[in-house]
Amino acid sequence: xxxxxxxxxxxxxxxxxxxxxxxxxxxxxxxxxxxxxxxxxxxxxxxxxxxxxxxxxxxxxxxxxxxxxxxxxxxxxxxxxxxxxxxxxxxxxxxxxxxxxxxxxxxxxxxxxxxxxxxxxxxxxxxxxxxxxxxxxxxxxxxxxxxxxxxxxxxxxxxxxxxxxxxxxxxxxxxxxxxxxxxxxxxxxxxxxxxxxxxxxxxxxxxxxxxxxxxxxxxxxxxxxxxxxxxxxxxxxxxxxxxxxxxxxxxxxxxxxxxxxxxxxxxxxxxxxxxxxxxxxxxxxxxxxxxxxxxxxxxxxxxxxxxxxxxxxxxxxxxxxxxxxxxxxxxxxxxxxxxxxxxxxxxxxxxxxxxxxxxxxxxxxxxxxxxxxxxxxxxxxxxxxxxxxxxxxxxxxxxxxxxxxxxxxxxxxxxxxxxxxxxxxxxxxxxxxxxxxxxxxxxx
Length: 444
Description:
Elements: H1 18-27, E1 54-60, H2 66-80, E2 84-90, H3 93-105, E3 112-116, H4 120-125, E4 129-130, H5 133-138, H6 148-153, E5 155-156, E6 159-160, E7 163-164, E8 166-175, H7 176-181, H8 193-205, H9 217-230, H10 248-262, H11 274-281, E9 286-290, H12 293-298, E10 305-308, E11 319-322, E12 324-329, H13 336-351, H14 353-356, E13 362-363, H15 366-369, H16 372-375, H17 378-384, E14 390-391, H18 399-414, H19 420-441
Helix pairs in contact: 1-2, 9-10, 9-18, 18-19
């Protein structure tokens, strides 16, 4: 069911500041402080800091609107835990993954970190992470309180390496002003193929290319993956050993994206991020983008917008999603006190999942998604309606290298330089070679 409103404007959030909401969530008892441990002895971050606090280095890639929200949580944690001092370092994800191995080897890396679910098995296979089975057990975390696919994907080679924090799905963003100007109902979003294509035809008759199709990883890559699943296909076989995206379902999915360009529903040669900018500027009505776009759109006072689950273009409800997971790193010089402090920190932040959702996320924990605090975040709650239909890349070391070949096929086809079937088949051959190489590289 889509999120709707009685006016063209997006549903209003509660009249409360982000910091005020975070404080309110803590006051309601969603987070229970765990007794802090005293520090001691030399560590990778130096000896215990002044006042006997255990220093804890925490790395993330939260450079967008979610960064300040996590920093607020870190500040609250430090204020409530006198024996622990968490320092958060934020950098672009590409820099994060490039710097992490050397930093851990030198003892200058994080003790606790955030990793994307699809990067987690690669880091585990490279020996960068410590298993967290005991953390999950000590904190009484079970599959019953998490999205099953996300919980299961945190396991590599029989051990758990990730504690899920959130999921960040693809969703349908709507410029309700553009929709209304075309004579369409801004409160009734088209959520099946016939109504979606009908809306795009109506917009085209008014001179509007309603859905700009990105040929780039963000967000064309996530759109293509969602469509492959919607048409009943898959990216890989069950174990992630070989590619499946070049089969009929994948060809049908990519052909639909290319047809959008040929039919004029999309502009041609769409640049990186030009699709979401077109939505913001009133040049497009619809954009398939990540939930992380909520805070970006919310910061534009003149924009009237809404968000809902993805339309079903094929025969199956499905949407691409990623997930941020807490991990413990394997680092020279880490003390037992720091490991215990990291457990305390992970537990506390996990219990604040409803507060973390303010940054534009869907909590991985069911108890947080069912809370009144999360329900009050109307855009996030609307995206979460498709939580049972979310799909994830297989938990296989080096899988991102293979998926990169799919993005090449996307680029070739949507830019009209190669037919969809040929582009996907060529990409599949290259990706199968990558997968074979990775099996040797990450053999355990």
